[in-house]
Amino acid sequence: MNTDTVTLVSTTSSGVPATLRKLYFGRFAFAAVWAGLLFATADTLGPLSVALLVVYPLLDVVAAIIDVRSAKANGASAPALHVNIAVSSLAVIGLAVAAMSGIPDVLRIWGAWAVVSGLVQLVAGAVRRQLGGQWPMIISGAISVLAGTSFITQAGSGEPTLANLAGYAFLGGVFFLVSALRLNRDRRSA
Hints:
Elements: H1 15-40, H2 47-73, H3 79-98, H4 103-127, H5 135-154, H6 163-189
């Protein structure tokens, strides 16, 4: 096997865990605030809830770009993160369009995005296991796949609501917090 093979994400430099720690703490804080705001507006698709729906995957794009830059700065490439950037960018557009059709279409788009981005997160976490703090990301990716499937199913129910998206985002944020804390603990142990 060629030692120059491109990996899915960086797995060697100490700069990457430091960047991930900061990024994961930030993502937890964002998810907590976002979930509270969406939960408060979850029954309708008003201007605030639509803005929140579009901003969430947009933040995912920004976070993946930061992560890609960190990986590149440390001599690695990150194809899984590039996939995440593309998928989340499509989700931003899809959610903006779906918001004009109603909550069921929003749930279908969000669900599809959760499934695909969850798979990407699962793969990226598995590849990054050596960095430490990645088991919560692997578990979170798997849960995202299951949750996304349930959102798609919920879209066909009698009274679909956005409230479950708030719970999903908050739980995802908790997984980011746990990963950040584990990376912090691993850094102190080293």
